[in-house]
């Protein structure tokens, strides 16, 4: 079952937060960014709160902009460290190397995702996008 949370209405929703859950894959399909999470996701406390019988989770962020207008900031740990701006294509390439979902902030027609990559980037990854809806599909 998919629950839809609208980001273009008067009152913003409280969207389930898969804190510390590993991201299995990220796909871009048209104007939708799909994030699929690890199997056995209910072992995390954050998931126990929302859906204790969940086996996995898929979140779909419907963009209210062109995909190339999204900003992805990746931490570069050289010297003092800095962020470099990349795109959604590079974000998908970070899965499989310990990419975790930390939290999200939602605003009117906008979303900011804070991720952490322990592999290639070894630091924070931030996605900033205009979005009008978030679909949450629990796999039980």
N/C terminus separation: 9 Å
Strand order of the largest sheet: 1-10-4-3-2-7-8-9-5-6
**Count of the separate structural domains:** 1
Q: Share of helix among residues?
A: under 10%
* Mean pLDDT score: 92
The oligomeric state of the chains shown is single chain
Please provide the ordered H/E string of secondary-structure elements: EEEHEEEHEEEE
Strand content: over 45%
Category from helices, strands and their pairing: mainly beta
Radius of gyration: 15 Å
Point out poorly predicted stretches. Answer: none
Major beta sheet summary:
10 strands, antiparallel
Tell me what you see in this structure.
With 140 residues, the chain is mainly beta. 8% of the residues lie in helices and 51% in strands. The protein contains two helices and ten strands. The longest helix has 6 residues, at 45-50. The mean pLDDT is 92.
Brief account:
8% of the residues lie in helices and 51% in strands. With 140 residues, the chain is mainly beta.
Spell out the blueprint of helices and strands.
Elements: E1 2-6, E2 21-29, E3 32-37, H1 45-50, E4 56-63, E5 71-76, E6 82-86, H2 88-92, E7 99-107, E8 110-117, E9 123-129, E10 131-139
Antiparallel strand pairs: 1-10, 2-3, 2-7, 3-4, 4-10, 5-6, 5-9, 7-8, 8-9
């Amino acid at each position: 079952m998919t629950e839809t949370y609208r980001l273009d209405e008067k009152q913003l929703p409280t969207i389930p937060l898969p804190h510390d859950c590993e991201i299995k894959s990220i796909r871009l399909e048209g104007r939708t960014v799909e994030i699929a999470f690890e199997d056995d996701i209910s072992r995390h406390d954050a998931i126990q709160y929302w859906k204790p019988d969940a086996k996995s989770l898929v979140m779909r962020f419907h963009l209210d902009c062109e995909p190339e207008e999204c900003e992805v900031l990746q931490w570069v740990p050289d010297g003092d460290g800095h962020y470099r701006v990349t795109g959604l294509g590079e974000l998908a390439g970070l899965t499989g190397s310990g990419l975790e979902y930390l939290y999200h902030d939602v605003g009117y027609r906008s979303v900011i995702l804070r991720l952490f990559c322990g592999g290639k980037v070894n630091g924070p990854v931030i996605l900033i996008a205009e979005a009008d809806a978030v679909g949450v599909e629990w796999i039980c």
